[in-house]
């Protein structure tokens, strides 16, 4: 039967069925004879001869089709002989046979509800195990920090000041810009709503309370978690990959004291200062937008600011900063120590560090909000 220069002939000879591919047995013409050769192979019940004498062109696809036909017949217990095969065709068929690999069937998926319960259970166990490890790391940091504070000469001041510059001084531009823009957005959105009720002057209260109590410190912590927390993980993770941490332990140096404490102290000292700077920039942005949108002069804004907020509004925000800093540094360093020997692991752990740090910062912020509400601040 013809098909773009590819076809099959079949006959019987000496009690054997002969299947003879003819013409170009290449990928372009095999579709036309695919069903036909399968039907012929299925109909064969006795010894079969596959004669390739009339094949003009044979590529990998054609060799696979012929090899598969012979293999399927032999699997049914039928004797198969390949005849009329030249050296090139024999090499092609042998290459196809050698490249064939056994594919393990997928395991049965089972009931979807059971799979979901199993997945939730495994996730809960993993979270519990990681929480226990993190608490252990937290205790290790506390004991090492307490020991270092009793012997201040053991603190690595050079490393401390280096990290203070990295996480604090170098973060000022991005923190300031973001706080300034957030202040503008708060003032603009507040003005558009409060003008409807003739209470646009209260936009000062809205900006001041939002920035000082929540937005300034929370936004700063999130920026630092993405910028510095991820850097901690990548730095320590790269040292793990290069076995520098193992070498450090071999030399008798404590990785917590050398790697973690300088980063931790640097962030605890600089995050409150960054939060204070973010507060100032947020108020400047809000004041500028209030001047432009509501014609509230800077002098009026400052005067209203004194009446709108108390010092506790400022301290409520600043007091949260060291706790956020401790959590960000601890998560970043912990994930760095969990890296296992590859660049892929460094990337995965860095992502986890950012997500976990931001999540825990928000949890701590919610806890503080409830606490301050309960104590009436």
Report on the structure:
There is one protein chain. By secondary structure, the chain is an alpha/beta fold. A hairpin with a 2-residue loop joins strand 1 and strand 2 (16-25). It has helices at 31-43, 60-75, 87-99, 112-150, 157-167, 172-194, 203-241, 244-250, 255-294, 298-308, 311-337, 343-375; strands at 6-13, 16-25, 48-51, 55-58, 80-83. Helix 9 packs across helix 11. Helix content is 72%, strand content 8%. The longest helix is centred in the last third of the chain and has 40 residues, at 255-294. Strands 1, 2, 3, 4 and 5 form a five-stranded mixed β-sheet that branches.
Write the layout of secondary structure elements.
Layout: E1 6-13, E2 16-25, H1 31-43, E3 48-51, E4 55-58, H2 60-75, E5 80-83, H3 87-99, H4 112-150, H5 157-167, H6 172-194, H7 203-241, H8 244-250, H9 255-294, H10 298-308, H11 311-337, H12 343-375
Highlighted features:
377 residues; alpha/beta; five-stranded mixed β-sheet
Give the topology string: H per helix, E per strand.
Answer: EEHEEHEHHHHHHHHHH
Helix fraction bin: over 70%
* Total helical elements: 12
Main beta-sheet annotation: 5 strands, mixed
Give the overall shape.
Answer: elongated
Oligomeric state, counting identical vs distinct chains: single chain
> How many strand units?
5
Q: Which regions have little confidence, pLDDT < 50, spanning 5+ residues?
A: none
Based on helices, strands and strand pairing, what is the structural class? alpha/beta
Which radius of gyration do the C-alpha atoms yield? 36 Å
User: What is the residue-averaged pLDDT?
Assistant: 88
Give the termini separation: 91 Å
Give the DSSP E fraction (strand runs of 2 or more residues). 5-15%
């Amino acid at each position: 039967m013809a098909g773009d220069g590819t076809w099959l002939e079949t006959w019987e000879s000496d009690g054997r069925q002969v299947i003879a591919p003819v013409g170009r047995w290449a990928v372009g013409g095999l579709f036309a004879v695919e069903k036909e050769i399968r039907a012929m192979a299925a109909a064969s019940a006795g010894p079969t001869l596959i004669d390739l004498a009339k094949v003009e062109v044979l590529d990998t696809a054609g060799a696979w089709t012929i090899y598969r036909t012979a293999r399927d017949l032999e699997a049914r217990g039928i004797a198969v002989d390949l005849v009329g095969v030249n050296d090139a065709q024999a090499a092609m068929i042998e290459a196809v046979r050698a490249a064939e690999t056994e594919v393990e069937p997928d395991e049965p998926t089972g009931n979807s509800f059971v799979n979901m319960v199993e997945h939730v259970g495994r996730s809960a166990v993993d979270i519990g195990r990681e929480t226990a490890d993190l608490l252990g790391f937290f205790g290790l940091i506390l004991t090492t920090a307490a020991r270092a504070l009793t012997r201040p000469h053991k603190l690595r001041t050079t490393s401390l000041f280096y990290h203070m510059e990295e996480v604090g001084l170098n973060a000022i531009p991005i923190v300031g810009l973001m706080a300034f823009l957030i202040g503008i957005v708060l003032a603009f959105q507040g003005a558009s709503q409060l003008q409807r009720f003739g209470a646009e002057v209260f936009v000062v209260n809205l900006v001041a309370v939002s920035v000082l109590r929540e937005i300034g410190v929370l936004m700063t912590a999130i920026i630092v978690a993405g910028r510095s927390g991820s850097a901690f993980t990548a730095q320590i993770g790269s040292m793990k990959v290069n076995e520098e941490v193992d070498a450090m332990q071999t030399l008798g140096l404590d990785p917590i004291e050398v790697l973690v404490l300088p980063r931790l102290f640097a962030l605890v000292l600089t995050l409150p200062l960054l939060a204070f700077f973010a507060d100032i920039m947020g108020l400047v942005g809000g004041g500028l937008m209030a001047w432009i949108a509501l014609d509230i002069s800077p002098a009026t804004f400052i005067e209203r600011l004194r009446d709108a907020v108390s010092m506790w509004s400022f301290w409520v925000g600043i007091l949260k900063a060291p706790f956020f800093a401790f959590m960000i540094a601890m998560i970043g360093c912990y994930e760095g120590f969990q890296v296992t020997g590859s660049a892929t692991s460094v990337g995965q752990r860095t992502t986890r560090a950012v997500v976990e740090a931001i999540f825990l910062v928000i949890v701590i912020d919610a806890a503080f909000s409830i606490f301050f509400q309960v104590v009436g601040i």
